[in-house]
């Protein structure tokens, strides 16, 4: 890892991007050599650089040098990283409701290891808006964080500050997990699909609009075994072993891909992709992407900022081929809330959609409706040779500062959609122990009949 540190002293090392993950307004990449870099919004510390400053270009998280990171996963405003070799999981960013797993609700501006997971062999971590889950090699499912709708699957609605075992899955071999804003899904080794948490739009796939406090099994589809699952904010996407793709839940913006804007309470096949064998899926706040086995990428749903990648900013209620990438084979795609990132077999990384916080990684704050190559990360560009590093804090340090003063954290508030009274709003943020209801604060949800009036937003205040 010494070569990663040397990247700021004139010695350049060519690297390749191995994995990508995207949050609400930030993006993280894992590079060869166990290097992790991040960019975008950082007012809650989700970039891990020890400050609240936005980064418009990928920047190496120096605190993770020598931590042998093997996997990364973003929540909305927090981030996790996993080291398989040291059996350690790190988290940082917005800490309200215990989503970081450290036993409190404090924000962290540099990565800290989750003590409750130390020494466990973790197969996967899933992060939603305010909650997280993990699968261990022993088959246990653990969950922590926000739980107001039962999204932790623990049988109650109390928030949990450290990982707790989901006993409902005892004796069940869970293959993978996915987390939305307030709901969670799972696929088992025998191809069954489960959903729990907030179900107002049918996003649990259980045929109704009820919440579930424990995992509920989705009715099987004749002739299909499920292989993988992904969650958007309030919709769910699943792929069967056959390669067929199914979606269900909220569809006001066409994010289900069925050619209409109707919610579906049970899995419904995306007919326009029935002749494609889908290998990967991902969901954003209100948009969806699917990748087929030929490396072709299809996007649909909310497209206000160009996040569907089809060259315009009109919502799409059926899958659209991302034509800008047809000359390459796409190998990976990830949705943020309003942006999308992808990687090709040539080692090139692309991004598009909302760019106001620099989450696209191009060095500016511009929205884009067509994929643009991130030169600093791409093999046909600078191959990660010119990535700068953040401070010198190391993940093994116990004395590094992780607190930023309120003046520094909130002097600049980059939220682009909310009014001046409530610029730092989250759906689940703390307001001096109470709730501040701010109806119609978002330009894109004002007057939205599909968003229940009981959905309160709580103002985040400085510590």
Report on this model:
With 463 residues, this protein is an all-beta fold. The chain is 2% helix and 36% strand. It folds into two domains: 2-416, Methylamine Dehydrogenase, Chain H; 417-463, no CATH class. The strands form eight sheets. The protein has a five-stranded mixed sheet, with no helix packed on it. Strands 5-6-7-8 form a four-stranded antiparallel sheet, with no helix packed on it. Strand 17 (226-231) and strand 18 (235-240) form a beta hairpin. The radius of gyration is 20 Å and the shape is globular. The relative contact order is 0.13. Mean pLDDT is 86; it is low at 1-10, 396-401 and 403-463. RCC repeats lie at residues 34-85, 87-138, 139-190, 191-242, 243-294, 295-346, 347-400. It holds the Pfam family WD40_RLD. This is RCC1-like domain-containing protein.
The main β sheet shows up as: 5 strands, mixed
- What is the number of helices? 2
**Count of beta strands:** 31
Distance between the termini: 35 Å
Query: Which structural class do the helices and strands define?
Result: mainly beta
Q: What is the CATH homology-level superfamily of the largest domain?
A: Regulator of chromosome condensation 1/beta-lactamase-inhibitor protein II
Pfam family, one: RCC1
Domain RCC1-like: 124-387
RCC repeats: 34-85, 87-138, 139-190, 191-242, 243-294, 295-346, 347-400
Keywords: Repeat
């Amino acid at each position: 890892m010494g070569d990663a540190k040397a990247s700021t002293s004139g010695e350049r090392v060519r690297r390749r991007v191995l994995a990508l993950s995207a949050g609400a307004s930030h993006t993280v990449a894992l590079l060869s050599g166990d290097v992790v870099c991040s960019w975008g919004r950082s007012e809650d510390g989700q970039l891990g650089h020890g400050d609240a400053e936005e980064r418009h270009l990928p920047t190496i998280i120096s605190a993770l040098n020598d931590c042998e990171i093997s996997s990364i996963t973003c929540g909305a405003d927090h981030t996790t990283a996993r080291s398989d070799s040291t059996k350690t999981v790190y988290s940082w960013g917005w800490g309200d409701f215990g989503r970081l797993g450290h036993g409190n609700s404090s924000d962290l501006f540099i990565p800290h290891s989750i003590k409750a997971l130390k020494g466990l062999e973790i197969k996967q971590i899933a992060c939603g808006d305010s909650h997280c889950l993990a699968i261990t090699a022993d088959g246990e499912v653990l969950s922590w964080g926000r739980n107001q709708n039962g999204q932790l699957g623990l049988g109650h609605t109390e928030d949990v500050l450290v990982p707790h075992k989901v006993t409902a899955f005892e004796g069940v071999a869970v293959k993978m997990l996915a987390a939305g804003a307030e709901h969670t899904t799972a696929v088992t080794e025998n191809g069954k699909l489960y959903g729990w948490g907030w179900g107002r739009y049918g996003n649990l796939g259980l045929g109704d609009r009820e919440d579930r406090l424990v995992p509920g099994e989705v009715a099987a589809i004749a002739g299909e075994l499920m292989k993988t699952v992904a969650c958007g904010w309030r919709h769910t996407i699943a792929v069967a072993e056959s390669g067929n793709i199914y979606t269900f839940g909220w569809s006001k913006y066409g994010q289900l891909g069925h050619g209409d804007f109707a919610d579906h309470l049970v899995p419904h096949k995306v007919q326009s992709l029935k002749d494609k064998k889908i290998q990967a899926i991902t969901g954003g706040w209100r948009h969806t992407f699917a990748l087929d086995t030929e490396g072709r990428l299809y996007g649909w749903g909310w497209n206000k900022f160009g996040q569907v990648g089809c060259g315009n900013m009109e919502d799409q209620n059926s899958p659209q081929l991302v034509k800008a990438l047809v000359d390459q084979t796409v190998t990976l795609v990830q949705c943020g809330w309003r942006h999308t990132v992808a990687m090709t077999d040539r080692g090139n990384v692309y991004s598009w959609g909302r760019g106001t916080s620099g989450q696209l990684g191009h060095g500016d704050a511009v929205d884009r409706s067509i994929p643009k190559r991130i030169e600093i990360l791409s093999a046909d560009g600078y191959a990660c040779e010119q990535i700068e590093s953040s401070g010198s804090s190391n993940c093994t340090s116990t004395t590094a500062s992780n607190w930023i003063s309120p003046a520094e954290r909130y002097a600049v508030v980059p939220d682009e959609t909310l009014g001046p009274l409530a610029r730092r709003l989250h759906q689940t943020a703390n307001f001096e122990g109470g709730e501040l209801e701010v109806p119609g604060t978002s330009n894109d949800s004002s007057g939205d009949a599909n968003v229940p009036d009981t959905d309160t937003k709580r103002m985040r205040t400085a510590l």
